[in-house]
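Contributing new records

If you add data, match the layout below exactly. Sequence lines come first and carry their own label; structure lines follow with theirs. Keep one chain per record. Anything else will be rejected by the validation script.
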Amino acid sequence: MNKSAIRAFGIAIFLVGALLSIADRLDLNIGLPTVASSNDKDVEELQKKLEQATKEIAALKANSTKETGNDNKQQENATDMSAEDEHTDSTQNAEKKTDNEVTMTLQIYSGITPYIVAQKLEDGGIITNSVEMELLLANAKYARSLQIGSYEVNSSMSLEEIAKLITGKKQ
């Protein structure tokens, strides 16, 4: 091949690339397949999943409200009992509290961040606010002290107790 043919081919490739980039910047459809159609399907699918999840959350909240109402009725009935029955009921309530206590095994691995630890604890139902735990673990007292291993934590533990456990600090 001669130099002029190679030069012409290079110029043609350059012009095609320039035209495609201009068409892309101006959002012109020049017959190329687009990704937008699959994105629209994904958005619709995700919206359906979100609606389903919202319905499930509403149902769970309704169930928990009913259970709370039942617990309140049981407590009112307990106050109407005699002193001996109240003692028995209080021991049953103590057992219920331990039954409501959530326990999980927390896995700490190399490179884990306080954010991920706090999220795991919140997802496991151990803590209610992951931001507080993240800030506590970022505190100079516990910063960069997370110890690799498996830890049994429960919802009755305070944030400080959990932090001391997973960082190996003395209690």
